[in-house]
Structure formats: C-alpha cells, structure tokens
Design goal:
487 residues; alpha+beta; 7-stranded mixed beta sheet; 3-stranded antiparallel beta sheet; elongated; binds zinc ion
Length: 487
Amino acid sequence: MPFDEEKQIQQLVSLYRRGFEEILRIIVEKEAKGQWTQYWRDLLLEVRAILQQLDQYADQWIEQTIGQVYSQAAAQTAVFLSQLGIEKLARPEFAQIHQRAIDVVAQNMADNLRDATQFIGRRINDVFRRVGLEQIGRKLAAGQTWQDMKQKVVQQLLDRGQTAFVDRLGRKWRLDAYASMVTRTTTREAASVATLNTCQEFGLDLVRITTHYPTCEKCASLQGKVYSISGRDSRYPKLTDERRPPIHPNCRHVLVPYVRELDDNAEETERLSNQPLDRDPRSEAEKQTYAEMRDAVTIATNRKRAREVLYNEAAPLEDKLKAARKLQRSYEKTGQKPKGRDAAILKQYRDWLDEQNLVKRVGHIEPKMFEVIAGNITTNEVVLTKERLKHIMEKHPGEWEALEPYLAQALKDPDYILRDKKRRNTGIVIKKLEQENMFLALRLQTADEMPGRKNSIITLFRISEKRLKGYLLRGDAVYIKIKPDKI
Ligand SMILES: [Zn+2]
Ligand SMILES: [Zn+2]
C-alpha cells in the first residue's frame, strides 16, 4: 500500500482530539463523592492515563511514520539525481548519517508532544490545588464546600482555557491543534533534512526552497532562493538553520535539489538568491490573497470548533449558545448563507432564543415622537421579553397586573415622553391614569443595533403626580401631548 502522509497526520491528530475531549468529559462527568483529596487523586489518575496513552500512541506513530517520510523524500531525491546521471558517492558513512537524522527529528517531535501532555497534566493538578486552598480559607460547611469546589474546578478548567497548552513562545494551543502543528512541521522537517542529506550523498551542494503562492511574509523573501549547503559555492549564500524550511509552524516549504545546468533562468535565480532577506517582495495582490486565505482558514477552524460543541449531546447549554453565536457570526462575516446541518442548527438556536426572549408583542409606537432620543428607529413594534417580565414581577409586584390593560394605549398615545438620562436609546413613556401615572422605560431599536430586534419594554411601574411634576420641572420631557381643548 502506498504511503499516505496526510492520512497518517489526520489519524494522529484525531487521536489527540479524542483524548482532549475525553479529558473534558471526565472532568465534567466524574461524580463528586467521598473525600475531596480522593476525588482529586482519582480524577488525575484517569486524566494521566489518557495523557500517557497519547504519549504512547505518539511514540508508535513517530517510529513508524517519521522514518517513512524521510525515506520517501530521500528516495525521490535519489531517483531525480540518478536520472540526471549524477552518481551516488561511495561513502558508506551516509547510512549512519541518515539514521541519525531520523532519530534527531523523531526525538524532537516526541519531546514537543510530551511538553504538551505534561503541561496539561500539571495544569489540571494546579487548578485542583488552588481551588482546594481557596475553599479551606473560606471554611464553608462541609457539604456545601464539596459541590462548590467541584463546580469551581470544572468552570476554571473549561472556561479559562486552562486545558490549552502554552508553548515556549507563549502561544496558546488546544491540544489537538498543537499536535497537528507539531506533526505537520516535523514531517516537513524530516523531508527537508532527507533531501539535504541525499544531495550531499550525491555530491550536490545546491538546494532550492520551493515556491508557493500565496505565501506569508516570513517565507516570501526566502522562497525560490538557491543555497549552498557547504557554503563553498560563492555564487550562492550558505544554507543556515534559519533559512532551512520549515521556517515556522505549519510552513509548507521544503528543500529540493538544484542543478544549475537545468535552470533556464540560472542568472536570474542567482541574482534572486542574493537578494536581502529584510524586504517583503510580495505584490499587494499576493499579500491580499494570502490574508484572505488565512481568514478562510480561521473561519473554517472557528466553524469546526463551534460544530464540535453544537453536535455534542453532553455539552452544557451555555457553551452551545456561545458556539451557536460564533457559528452565526462566521456566516455574517463572510455574507454567506448557512447551508445543510449548519442552517438547521442555527434555526433551532434562533427559535430557542425567540422562545426565551419574545413573550408578546404589546403594541406599537409612533417613532417620530421619539426622534429626539434616537434617530433611525427601525420599527414601530414593541415587545416584552420573558426576562424583563420576570424583572417587573419580582421588583415591582402588582404593577404588571395593574398596568397591562393600558399598555397598548400608552404606547400609541403617550401623555409625555421623557429622556432617560442613564440608558442609551431609551425613552420613558408616561401615561396618565385615573389615580397615578404609568412609567414605562422603552429601549428603542435603531439601525446601528442587531438587526431584527424590536423596541422593547425594560421596566414598568406607577409613579405619583408629584414625582411626575418633578421630572417635568427638571426639563426631561421631549414630547408633551397637546390636549384638544388647549388648541
Ligand atoms: Zn510561511
Ligand atoms: Zn513556508
């Protein structure tokens, strides 16, 4: 069976993803019973077992795959050079050089992956210790402490990205994204080193860095250049470690053998190879295309992560809502319409929100009356959400029952409209009742807010004549109804 590098990479990365998900699942689901320290120890044991298993899988993978990647690149280079009539030098020490190169690359990869699993194991342990200490300081009743502590641990581990791995350069990675980066970068590195050593085995001193379009600012000044491996060919710069691809994580550049006689533009290549590295040679169009490609990758990653949460039955509701918003925004950003499963799941999410938010349409306003408070009012509809109704019932008992019958009339035909000095885009609708006055705070829906929303009642209660006079004397009114008998 032919060797499929991409498939191998995908396999290892999906193992890391499953391991990561498994750790989160254990943290969320493990039942909190018995002693805190016992619970902590048991949980850590389970997490460590998963991390250890990942390390073992990784070791196996590295042993099988890195050698194959290396051999494949070495063989390709050898075939290419042989076909040109270039012969392998009789230098038996190269067998050892190849083996040592494979060992070094493999060891680096194993170390890098172990950094991540060890880091995460330590982090989880730290969170437990910290939460434990905090709680001891607070001296809560025993039963209560227990649930609180577990809740805290879960929250800290999930919310604050504590399960993310911070690499030596301070960048944050999710375990599977990090494994993917390490794997891709290492396989590129194995291929580059294999090419390099095989060229030397054949006595060829020149290598070229491949060219890709579009490319990043780091690789742009390096790609297409020819380097002298030994540094003895004065026509080209010496190949140093910084110039040897991969240049950065996930870099796709590799080295290929360079035979000057085969290059129709040898002069031009030589000139290019000696260009300084501190200048970005890319055209504006290429920079733009590269940025767009990066954006597309970011969007694809965001969508993938959002779907992982949304399609996961066990994910908490709060996380699902966050993920749905993320998915929704990714579509808003590109102006695309969600399709298929995404469309279905986003519709579910909107329906759910509507169900939570929209209790009833309570009436209509005349937007012109509110112009001084907010320009660009986009709708005359007024709604009351479940959340606000709850607020009114709890904070102003009895008011809803008393005022509901007059709502529609008050909105349509207010006696006064006051400016709300604390809240933006909000007006106070005053309606005179037989005894007192209705005070209704109304949030206005303008063009610069989330589209699709309606004007919405914030709060509702009765105020006395005296208090109303106070507002009017202060000059808060922006609209006063003219009584017919005063015309
Ligand atoms: Zn690059
Ligand atoms: Zn690159």
